[in-house]
Amino acid sequence: MKKQKNLEIVAIGSPSVLALSESEQKHFYFTLLNRILELYKEKN
């Protein structure tokens, strides 16, 4: 049986996509779009 790990995340300040480099921004949005499409396909 796989052990579950519980993590606590504490955010300091406000995250900003603009703080990422251009290539990191592209990767972030590409990944986000792919995940949205995956979830859409699962529902249909």
Give the gist of this structure.
Helices cover 50% and strands 0% of the residues. With 44 residues, the protein is an all-alpha fold. It has a domain at 20-44.
Structural description of this entry:
It is a single chain. 50% of the residues lie in helices and 0% in strands. With 44 residues, the protein is an all-alpha fold.
The biggest sheet amounts to: none
Low-confidence stretches: none
Question: How many β strands by DSSP?
Answer: 0
Note the run of SSEs as H and E: H
Mean pLDDT across residues: 92
| Secondary structural class | mainly alpha
Radius of gyration: 15 Å
The geometry reads as flat
Distance between the termini: 31 Å
Strand composition percent: under 5%
Helix share bin: 40-55%
SS field, number of helical segments: 1
What structural keywords apply?
single chain, 44 residues, mainly alpha, 1 helix
Topology:
Layout: H1 22-43
